Amino acid sequence: MIHDDLQCVLLTEQDIKERVEELAAMIDGDFEGSERPVLMIGVLKGSFIFIADLMRALKTDCSVDFMAVSSYGAKSETSGQVRILKDIGENIEGRDVIVIEDILDSGITLSYILELLKTRKPNSIKLCALLDKPDRRKTQVEVQYKGFIIPDEFVVGYGLDFAEKYRGLPYIGVLKPSVYK
Ligand code: IMP
Ligand code: MG
Fold this sequence. Notes:
The protein is of the alpha/beta class. The protein has one domain: Rossmann fold. It has helices spanning 13-31, 48-57, 108-118, 177-180, and strands at residues 6-11, 38-44, 62-70, 83-86, 96-104, 124-132, 145-149, 155-156, 172-175. Helix 1 (13-31) crosses helix 2 (48-57). The longest helix has 19 residues, at 13-31. It is globular, with a radius of gyration of 16 Å. The structure holds inosinic acid and magnesium ion. Inosinic acid binds at residues 46, 71-72, 78, 101-109, 154-156, 160.
């Protein structure tokens, strides 16, 4: 049964599960034989479910940390400004890092995080986003691991929210515009 506030289901639980396994296989291939555990940095809150599933699908040794940023508030459009609400606790110098995001929209959040983490001298840094809305890009950012390219619609579920709601839905659906307008 689909939630009343949703217009349609865009990605089912099964679609997501299969793609997460494919992404994990790509990461396993790239990090085969690496000496230290890869550090996965989840961008809170939207990535918490994705990162939990991704880590369980990976064979690569990894550790996890989280960072929280804010650019939205209770709106469906980015404010264009990124604020760090919580920084990681790990020293990333010399580490192989993968930043895990729920969705790449304007690109502002991920490019900000990328530039910030680069100054801390990791050995390598890659980006992973479950969803990509290319129509709305304002800043070019290269994402090595991308789950799905989606149309320019506001989506919720599987960690993604609107005003802190719908994160627990096991699928990803399009929110009815009447809910946020
Ligand atoms: P960006 O900085 O514009 O790329 O925004 C990325 C962030 O915006 C994501 O981490 C989400 O928190 C949020 N976001 C962008 N589009 C959506 C959406 O369709 N649903 C829910 N959150 C979104
Ligand atoms: Mg987010």
